[in-house]
Amino acid sequence: MARMVLKLASLAAATSGIYLYGNKFLDPNDFGVVRVGRAIATTAVITYDYLTSLRSVPYGSEEYDFLKSQVHLRSAERLRELCCANRGTFIKVGQHLGALDYLLPEEYTRTLKVLHSQAPQSTRQEIEQVIREDLGKEIKELFLSFEDTPLGAASLAQVHKAVLQDGRTVAVKIQHPKVQAQSSKDILLMEVLLLVVKQIFPDFEFMWLVEEAKKNLPLELDFLNEGRNAEKVAHMLKNFDFLKVPRIYWELSTRRVLLMEFMEGGQVNDRAYMERNGINVNEISRNLGRLYSEMIFVNGFVHCDPHPGNVLVKKCPASGKAHIILLDHGLYQVLSESFRMDYCRLWQALIKADMKRVQKYSRRLGAGDLYPLFACMLTARSWESVNRGIDRLPVSASEDVEIRSNAAAYLPQITRLLNNVPRQMLLLLKTNDLLRGIESALHTRASASSFLNMSRCCIRAVSTYQRSNSHSLYRRAQISLTEALSLWQINLYELFLWLKGSQLGNWVIALLSWMHHST
């Protein structure tokens, strides 16, 4: 009897499975038991691999390091497969991990980076359903034309090019229909699994990742919030004539549908595109640095997802100027004034190689005794380079390899540090790594001009803060004078660097040398 019941149960399960996979209206990923089972199984296999593969190998030996790298790679591939299968929130979190180039082992970041190009696409029927539910009309009633193939698909949404009835070309961002319902359950599942893993590996401190997802995902799923962010940053940075932010069409926007002005260009890390179109690579890198220094140090309102697909460049045919187009405004970090001031002063100390102040402000930002590691994480430079001054020498290939190797060697300390620093710091670290990735692709990493722009913004931010907290007219005038002198010194140094690297500068140096030898 029991055997008969077992056979019937097996047959029913098999038939159900065939029906689910064969039915185009039902997706097994929509069923919680499938998603939960897959996540539990993947976590169990990864945990077992780490527990058993390194058990009998002497810690610190060459064999240990080799095997650990292999386990990292296998685990990263399993994690990537899980993210691709469960989609939505899992891909979003995987993309976040893949962006932490100098904070996680290279095996993880290299493997998870591909998630930016492997996001799922919603079908035409699903897109029509979302537009019908949110806008109350069919696609053909709203648009003269609507391209079926998306311009880009991400973990939470995809973007289509369309033409409105009045002839305006627009970009239509449409949320994947199932993400909203699945996101809260997915985050709870991740939290439970990470707590279990922490019981097995006490040094595993990745709860900050779940906390960030809990806080940020609801904001990213609200496209009206994204529209408001776009308008705010466009107004905030209106003095930068090179920056373009797509206009929002509010009359056709909802929490799941966002209509924007259509803008196109090459990705900001595509050096070949810039060279083909006569765009100055150094100018783009410099302007991107100015943009982010202004957001971080002066305004405290930071676009935290500057991966290359969200930052485009285009040369204006009329003016010949190169524009930076900033897309995807769903994820911003608002910095408190006290945090922003400590962060400003820390970067000033790092640029000046003032180790006492580096220690002081790192501790104030939660780094504690791990402040040397914190300084290396922020700058992606070795401790030796931090001590010598990060603006003195460019990053060498050997130093870059050293930093990436240390990410694996110091993983427990890094995760502990990420658990201790203010939550505002986490997205800034991700943003730093994404910007460094762009600079590396453009071969402009750690240029002197980027540090000069940061210094200017830090001086302006600290001076503005000091003036706002001073009640003495004399003291405010003194602060303004000090600010002007500091900025003048930076301008003078920048002129010196320009002369040093220019043909005119070489002529002046040659003339002075000739005059010196003549006398």
From TrEMBL:
Domain of life according to the entry: Eukaryota
Purpose: Appears to be essential for maintaining mitochondrial cristae formation and mitochondrial function by acting via YME1L1 in a kinase-independent manner to regulate essential mitochondrial structural proteins OPA1 and IMMT. The action of this enzyme is not yet clear. It is not known if it has protein kinase activity and what type of substrate it would phosphorylate (Ser, Thr or Tyr).
Pfam families listed in its UniProt record: ABC1
Keyword Signal: yes
GO MF term list: ATP binding; protein kinase activity
SUPFAM superfamilies: Protein kinase-like (PK-like) (SSF56112)
Keywords in alphabetical order: Kinase, Signal, Transferase
Transmembrane segments: none
Any one Gene Ontology BP term: mitochondrion organization
Family under the similarity heading: Belongs to the protein kinase superfamily. ADCK protein kinase family.
Gene3D superfamilies for this protein: Transferase(Phosphotransferase) domain 1 (1.10.510.10)
Organism listed in the record: Eudyptula minor (Little blue penguin)
Span of domain Protein kinase: 145-474
Name the record gives this protein: AarF domain-containing protein kinase 1
Endpoints of the signal sequence: 1-17
Listed InterPro entries: ABC1_dom (IPR004147), ADCK1_dom (IPR045307), Kinase-like_dom_sf (IPR011009), Mito_struct-func_regulator (IPR051130), Prot_kinase_dom (IPR000719)
Gene Ontology cellular component annotations, sorted alphabetically: mitochondrial inner membrane
